[in-house]
Design goal:
Layout: E1 19-22, E2 29-32, E3 38-41, H1 44-52
Antiparallel strand pairs: 1-2, 2-3
This protein binds zinc ion.
The site of zinc ion has 6 residues, from loops.
């Protein structure tokens, strides 16, 4: 009998769902509002103040995902 990794629970949807991601390898948190805005925070208090202040400061404030090494573009394989 092996203990496998349990599946993640289903992700909730809706218009009042906030997501907070811990940015791996850092002390930072990424907040995702239900409106789609994202912001990186060091302080969880500031994070919640920003989330709960919706829509203040939420208009098109997007933070690019931390990707230090972009995937190399692949040339299409010859037919
Ligand atoms: Zn928002």
């Amino acid at each position: 009998m092996s203990a496998g990794i349990p599946e993640a629970p289903p992700v909730l949807g809706g218009d009042r769902v906030y997501r907070i991601h811990w940015v791996l390898g850092t002390d930072r948190l990424r907040a995702v509002c239900h409106c789609g805005s994202e912001r990186i925070f060091d302080d969880p208090v500031e994070l919640w103040e920003w989330l709960l202040a919706h829509p203040d400061g939420h208009e098109s404030v997007t933070v690019p995902a931390p990707s230090p090494e972009p995937a190399p573009a692949r040339a299409p394989a010859p037919a």
